[in-house]
Amino acid sequence: MSEATTSIGAAAPVAKVGMYRWRICAMLLLATTINYIDRQVLGVLAPFLQTEIGWNEIEYGYIVTAFQAAYAIGLLCAGAIIDRLGTRVGYAIAISIWSLAAMSHSLAASVIGFAAARFVLGFGEAGNFPAAIKTVAEWFPRKERALATGIFNSGSNIGAIVAPMMVPVVAATWGWQAAFLVTGALSAAWLVAWLLIYRTPEDQPRLSAGELAYIRSDPPEPTVRVPWSRILRHRQAWAFVAAKFITDPIWWFFLFWLPKFLHAEYGLTLLGLGLPLIVIFVLADVGSIFGGWLAGRFIKMGWSVNRARKTAMGICGLAVVPIVFAANADNLWLAVGLIGLATAGHQGWSANVFTLTSDMFPRRAVASVVGIGGFAGAVGGMMIATFTGFLLQTTGSYVPVFLMAGSAYLIALLVVHLLAPRLEPAQLDGAGA
């Protein structure tokens, strides 16, 4: 523990330092919630739109792949852009693009039209996580980052809960086009609030001196931007990239195919999808916060960051394994329980995987590392989208995908451990950098 941390801890306990940083975390939570509402609208409406527009499983796979392709391209660019422009401007640009793209779905009337709208949406939404992770690195000391990440990352589950609650009702009342217009408008409203409220800690007049000192209690870091070529020389970067590439496709499958799975296997109508999806993503929400809390709890018990992070990741990975039985479950709620446990495991895993970046890289490189890893995850998502489309068109069986989901996380943890056995910080400025 540094002298700065010791003196702050002695003079001003965390509870008395101030709580403004958690308001920023709440903004990130809301942005991530809206982000997932916007992307989830198509998944919720997919069984209905498949009949309305007339696409088959392969064409739906291509529509999802269009989103993933743009998301991959956007992530490759977003991290570096946000590191260069800063979180306030970078986040604003990203959400402006995805807000307009979300509303543009209402104009689509063909497979090509939906694919084009999804492509632009994916490009804009790619900025969310690099910006949010960088904001956490700017606003929170290292020991609170996993919890803050878990909290804002839970917005992905809240969005996935709100979407099946809201979208079917809006679509049934005013038409499916209205669902895209309403959710896109939420993004625009958040943008206005962000521009009015957000400043960096040093420029935020509402932040107390004590809380600023607490936020900056970690040892100081250089501020020079780090190019990708230097980042990718380090095994720590490849550990994060591998974790995202192997496990992100499973989450994409959950988002875009669960409504279709429940509709196909259990005959659920558009309005009937709501409750099962809500239960699944409530469990995912609990898993996200629990996963971040668990690693922090282990660290407070005196465990090393390496042991705490990987133990939490292992526990979350094990929670996904029982999903291998979901495809053959003869009861709807048994399937929902198995899938909900898996989504909880994924989100707890994800909270810790995102935090690996701030464990191993300085703040000035975090958004770039997240962007590179997110690119890898989106490429994996493209692959599983196309594979699932062809699989379902030819066999109609979800079994192979659930088998992949059950094994992916433990394989990814092994790869992370082999590449970063001690989670040592990358020496970006050392002789070997």
Automatic annotation (TrEMBL):
<dbReference type="Pfam" id="PF07690">
    <property type="entry name" value="MFS_1"/>
</dbReference>
<dbReference type="InterPro" id="IPR036259">
    <property type="entry name" value="MFS_trans_sf"/>
</dbReference>
<feature type="transmembrane region" description="Helical">
    <location>
        <begin position="60"/>
        <end position="82"/>
    </location>
</feature>
<feature type="transmembrane region" description="Helical">
    <location>
        <begin position="174"/>
        <end position="197"/>
    </location>
</feature>
<comment type="similarity">
    <text>Belongs to the major facilitator superfamily. Phthalate permease family.</text>
</comment>
<protein>
    <submittedName>
        <fullName>MFS transporter</fullName>
    </submittedName>
</protein>
<feature type="transmembrane region" description="Helical">
    <location>
        <begin position="237"/>
        <end position="258"/>
    </location>
</feature>
<keyword id="KW-0472">Membrane</keyword>
<keyword id="KW-1133">Transmembrane helix</keyword>
<feature type="transmembrane region" description="Helical">
    <location>
        <begin position="270"/>
        <end position="296"/>
    </location>
</feature>
<dbReference type="InterPro" id="IPR020846">
    <property type="entry name" value="MFS_dom"/>
</dbReference>
<keyword id="KW-0812">Transmembrane</keyword>
<dbReference type="InterPro" id="IPR011701">
    <property type="entry name" value="MFS"/>
</dbReference>
<dbReference type="InterPro" id="IPR050382">
    <property type="entry name" value="MFS_Na/Anion_cotransporter"/>
</dbReference>
<feature type="transmembrane region" description="Helical">
    <location>
        <begin position="89"/>
        <end position="117"/>
    </location>
</feature>
<feature type="transmembrane region" description="Helical">
    <location>
        <begin position="366"/>
        <end position="392"/>
    </location>
</feature>
<feature type="domain" description="Major facilitator superfamily (MFS) profile">
    <location>
        <begin position="24"/>
        <end position="424"/>
    </location>
</feature>
<feature type="transmembrane region" description="Helical">
    <location>
        <begin position="398"/>
        <end position="420"/>
    </location>
</feature>
